[in-house]
């Protein structure tokens, strides 16, 4: 498995798949977003697909960013059964994302 890229057209079906899903909203030019990528890749390896992780490039998918109130990047939103339940703004340690997904 690996972190999958989604866009305005595919995000909704990705989060509605049930269970817990993490969605990272960021941009290529965002330095903290680039530092978050290896953290998410490592979590993805540890979770072995049990908690899917998706990335949204806000420059390419502004509708998704607006729909979920993304104002700063990176923003990671935790979805449970298709509903957003937690929003983490800014770069955080891996353990924060791990705990948010387990709640």
What does this entry look like structurally?
This protein has 103 residues and is α/β, with parallel strands linked by helices. It has four helices and five strands, in the order βαβαβαββα. The chain has helices at 11-15, 31-47, 62-67, 94-102, and strands at 4-6, 20-26, 53-57, 75-80, 83-89. It has a five-stranded mixed β-sheet. The two termini are 22 Å apart. The model has no long low-confidence stretch (mean pLDDT 94).
Percent range for helical residues? Answer: 25-40%
Determine the mean pLDDT.
94
Percent in strands: 25-35%
- Specify the biggest β-sheet: 5 strands, mixed
The separation of the N and C termini measures 22 Å
Report strand order across the widest sheet.
Answer: 1-3-2-4-5
Number of strands: 5
Radius of gyration: 12 Å
Helix-strand pattern: EHEHEHEEH
Provide the structure class: alpha/beta
Q: Multimeric state of these chains? A: single chain
The dominant shape is globular
Poorly predicted sequence stretches spanning 5 or more consecutive residues: none
Total helices: the number is: 4
Concise account of the structure shown:
The chain has 103 residues and is α/β, with parallel strands linked by helices.
């Amino acid at each position: 498995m690996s972190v999958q890229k989604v866009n305005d057209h595919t995000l909704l079906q990705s989060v509605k798949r049930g269970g817990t899903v993490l969605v990272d909203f960021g941009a290529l030019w965002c330095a903290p977003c680039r530092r978050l990528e290896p953290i998410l890749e490592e979590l993805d390896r540890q979770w072995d697909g049990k908690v899917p992780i998706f990335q949204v490039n806000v420059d390419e998918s502004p509708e998704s960013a607006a729909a979920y109130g993304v104002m700063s990047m990176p923003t990671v939103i935790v979805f449970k059964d298709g509903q957003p339940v937690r929003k983490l703004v800014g770069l955080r340690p891996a353990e924060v994302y791990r705990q948010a997904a387990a709640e």
